[in-house]
From TrEMBL:
<dbReference type="GO" id="GO:0005886">
    <property type="term" value="C:plasma membrane"/>
</dbReference>
<feature type="transmembrane region" description="Helical">
    <location>
        <begin position="420"/>
        <end position="440"/>
    </location>
</feature>
<feature type="transmembrane region" description="Helical">
    <location>
        <begin position="193"/>
        <end position="218"/>
    </location>
</feature>
<dbReference type="GO" id="GO:0006811">
    <property type="term" value="P:monoatomic ion transport"/>
</dbReference>
<feature type="transmembrane region" description="Helical">
    <location>
        <begin position="360"/>
        <end position="378"/>
    </location>
</feature>
<keyword id="KW-1003">Cell membrane</keyword>
<keyword id="KW-0472">Membrane</keyword>
<dbReference type="Pfam" id="PF01554">
    <property type="entry name" value="MatE"/>
</dbReference>
<protein>
    <recommendedName>
        <fullName>Multidrug-efflux transporter</fullName>
    </recommendedName>
</protein>
<dbReference type="InterPro" id="IPR048279">
    <property type="entry name" value="MdtK-like"/>
</dbReference>
<keyword id="KW-1133">Transmembrane helix</keyword>
<keyword id="KW-0813">Transport</keyword>
<keyword id="KW-0406">Ion transport</keyword>
<feature type="transmembrane region" description="Helical">
    <location>
        <begin position="164"/>
        <end position="187"/>
    </location>
</feature>
<feature type="transmembrane region" description="Helical">
    <location>
        <begin position="97"/>
        <end position="115"/>
    </location>
</feature>
<feature type="transmembrane region" description="Helical">
    <location>
        <begin position="390"/>
        <end position="408"/>
    </location>
</feature>
<keyword id="KW-0812">Transmembrane</keyword>
Amino acid sequence: MEKENNLVKGNILNSLLGLAFPIIMANILQTMYQLIDTFWLGRLGANAVASVSLSFPILFLVLSLGGGLTLGGTVIVSQHKGAGDQKMVNYSASQTVIVIFFISIFLAFLGYYLADPLMRLVGAGPEILNDSVTYFKVSSWGFIFLFMFFVYQSLMRGIGNVLIPMYIVLATVILNLILDPLFIFGYGSIPGYGVAGAAIASIITQGISAMAGMWILFRGKRGIKIKFSHMKFDFKWVKNLFVIGIPSSLDQSSRATAMTAMVMLVTSFSSDVVAAYGIGARILSLVIVPALGLSIATTSLVGQNIGAGRIDRAEKVGDLSALIAAIGLTFLGMLLFFFAEPLTRFFVPDDENVIQIGAKFIKIMSPSFGLLGVQQVLNGVFNGAGFTKVSMLISIIALWVVRFPVGFMLSNKTPLDYEGIWWAFPISNALTAIIAFVYYKRGAWKYKDSILQI
């Protein structure tokens, strides 16, 4: 009996941690792509860091448009797995792969040809515009590989198979660690490409991970077997995928557009503030990884248990996951509070002003990380139940009703100046955690029809 079949019985804590730990490790390793880029680009100067910092929110926006659909695949596959229907697991996986493949091609072209206006839109100054555009254009061609690995990873998580994706990510991050300085600075006959070199290194490693993931899915020895014969467009099934996945795409897109809006606020200040924000955003992306890992594990567990008709067990998963997130991320936030300055210095070792600004950003954000974790894992409960619209609405409230308006008002209408942007983060984390918790306890998510019946 394969391990993923045990998710609807046995000890909930063991199941949750057994899923969450490899997911968290894989997400940490994936975040290392950006951290490694920032580390090496920091050796080129603050402008190189700032140019990539401006590119990142737009890249995240483009990825989120298709990435939400991979979550739809996770939810559908997990519920079929819980119901014990392997034929529909394989069919659903095949349909998800072909849909995401065509979406990734479209977004790759879109990203490449809109690179310049997008970078101007977020406020790239003349000193960093060319590097920002070049980095974004090169990165766009990696969307196809990146999406193919994401869909493989999401499908594996849906059935509870999380170790092999982690190993693939580990191998490619190690390779990226080698390729980054090679293509950024050059060596021997290989010229240095500067900022673009970081994107080239990422594309190579993304291509390797995508090919590995697709090979595993077609081989069919790890719980899912996709077939070309199952990839003929089933418009009824694709509609169901979009019903589940579009709210998740809008959820992620709202996060990305809010990140872009926050960057536009930041760019009204100095390049040092932009660089500091970029470093703080990287730290935040690393900190949120445990919360996202628990959220994804919660989605898989809740989805399988709902598919098996175990609503009571699904609720116990949500309770335990929220408790772990609250305690664990609060502790992590306190550590980051006390080590904010050396962390910032690690990325930009020779710029004292950027170090002080970035450290202040981290110190203001970090005490609210436990609340951020609670909101994320409860979104995982809603997603596992197919209630993706709730997660979307919570994110919109967090980012557009609270974070951006508060950041704008505090930074432009009070003496806080740019630090007002920093304070918008803990305020939004607190309010949305409360909203998510109240909605979760109301229990409406437990009574939604299973997506197996759509």
